[in-house]
Design brief:
The protein has 18 helices and 32 strands. The chain is α+β, with helices and mostly antiparallel strands. Strands 2-3-1-4-5-6 form a six-stranded mixed sheet, with helices on both faces. The protein has a six-stranded antiparallel β-barrel with strand order 7-8-14-11-10-15. Strands 16-19-18-17-20-21 form a six-stranded antiparallel barrel. A hairpin with a 2-residue loop joins β26 (467-469) and β27 (472-474). The longest helix has 21 residues, at 413-433. The protein is elongated, with a radius of gyration of 38 Å. The termini are far apart.
Amino acid sequence: MHVVATAGHVDCGKSTLVRALTGMEPDRWEEERRRGLTIDLGYAWTTLPSGQDVAFVDVPGHERFLGNMLAGIGPAPVVCFVVAADEGWQAQSSDHRDAVAALGIEYGVVVVSRSDRAAPGQVGEVLARTRRELAGTGLANAPAVAVSAVEGTGLAELRATLDGVLAGVPAPASTGRLRLWVDRSFTIKGAGTVVTGTLAAGTLAQGDRLQLLGHDGSRSVVVRGLQSRDESYSSLGPVNRVALNLRDVSAADVRRGDALLTPDAWPVTGVLGIQRTTGVAYTDVPEQLMVHAGTAAVPARLRPFGADHARIVLDRRLPLVLGDRLVLRDPGTRSVLGGAQVLDADPPALRRRGDGVHWAERLAGMDAAGDVLGEVAGRGAVQEEHLRRLGLLSAHEAAPPGVRVLGDWWVHAPLFEAWQHRLRTALGELHERDPLAPGLSRGAARDLLNLPDERLLYPVIREAGLEQEGGNVRLPGTQGNLGAVGPAVAELERRLTADAFHAPEADELAALGLGARELAAAERAGRLLRLRDGVVLLPTAPAFAMRALARLEQPFTTSQARQALGTTRRVAVPLLEYLDSRGWTRRLDAGHRTVVR
């Protein structure tokens, strides 16, 4: 199916034309039919001569209902632009033209309606004026047909022309993430909540769980049933008019402008960086305006950065991505100010003086088709999934040159190199200032670099050629450098080499200038071994002890071990506990151990 929205000034015969093409009444309200004035969106469908199904979204033409018109035309890829032959181009025609241009709609047909009421030559004059007015829009070269819905003249030609136009519309993506803008919500007795919208891309299926992004937040809902053209389906692809029977939500909680989304697949943003595509320069528009996206109409504040770029703050967060089209409207005059295209769906906060200038320069340099390198460079580091949500990556797109892929993070190569340099510099300064320091803890290193994820620290350490041990990061070759305490440690090594189990007393260590910090540094350097209760030995002492204990009759007592090692109980007990912890000896009871063979 294709979906076609009407456009055109009030009382140009849009609804009459849809009625003649489909045999269905598009005006849903009794008031509309009584007054002969379309107020809200109407829907009808038919089958064209080629067998192609087409649904129409009939929109109001009166300026007071321009917001409703934009909700109808926003999600539609094709437009039927109607001008009455007996009235010609009107002010509302310009509003609708501006909306079509703002949305970037490129497929459609121009209809000169009510040809039966036109004077001789009037149809040609109206069509010529319409061509001039549509110049510069996507409908500049759209085929045109003059019709009389009352007499039926031109309807067959219009159906054939629509067939031709729809045949040239590119097929939308039926796979991937889904975003359905809601245009109606109501309750059906016995079924519950039903919402409708135009499915422009993706596939819906009965039983799908979707994210409902509403005016009051987000919630999970389930598709209980699915219809199109009053028929039930198990699944539907694009483009289609769809009605969804939803579970887990009441109709009062869903409104026009809400969106049904593939869960966790879309960014939800309240701030946008935009580029002007049509209309008034941003330096000349009011700060307070109305932004239309899909079926949503949201008050917003605009901050211009020159004539063609701006930052918009929305009153309500919306699921928008790179390339999405917006219509900007003056809430006072109700007129369309112009169109915009989203360049940055997740701009950085502007916290410091100068941030705005820097961001504006970046925004002006952005490619509307998407610039992965520019996005990564602007952020420094960004997760791959976030790039996909922003619409910057296709399914299997590789990282461009200048981007380092580190797990699920994409990091700008110059920033990755800067991280390495900064960490090496900090470690060098630390070692020069304090040779006994064990280095930087991993937490301190992450904080120093302001890393968004601790998993990024390992590749920084690896490629910077650094070492890590015991949760600390250090420069290579600095572990054994004990600085000024080196001679004292060497003296202690000399004494312990002469008598391996004669551990120095606390006063002896103090006389050598070896406190807890110095001993810890020596232990990290592999020069000493510290046991509990302040016992200090050489790292080779456990191996020597095992040789002596293996010669004892098994099992042995603590006293026998002490005598075999030629040491005191102060040293023997912590040493035996250390051997137990390594699994080299095993304690059998309070007084006996055995060597594990």
